[in-house]
Amino acid sequence: MVAADSVSRKCMLEVINEVKYALSSTVSVILHIVLKNIFIIPILSFISGINDILLYNFYFKW
Q: Which residue windows are transmembrane per the record (predicted)?
């Protein structure tokens, strides 16, 4: 009984570790995608907006 109990506890710990690993990798992928969309796209649009403003001012001042 004690041996079976320890084996089942070991299996439970392994399952919990697998679940933790799967969840952490999934969360990290989701965070990576979300952060990429939140930070990179506005920064790129901001840079292109600055370029548009600079080009606009440059062309209409001459």
A: 38-59
* Number of alpha carbons in the 13 Å side-chain half-sphere of residue 7: 4
The CA–CA distances, whole Å, from 3 to 8, 14, 31, 37, 60 equal 9, 16, 41, 51, 84
Evaluate if pTM is beyond 0.85: no
**What b-and-e string marks burial along 4-17, b requiring 16 or more CB atoms within 10 Å of the CB?**
eeeeeeeeeeeeee
Tokens of 6: 């320890």
3-state secondary structure of 1: coil
Residue 14 pLDDT = 92
d(CA 62, CA 53): 14
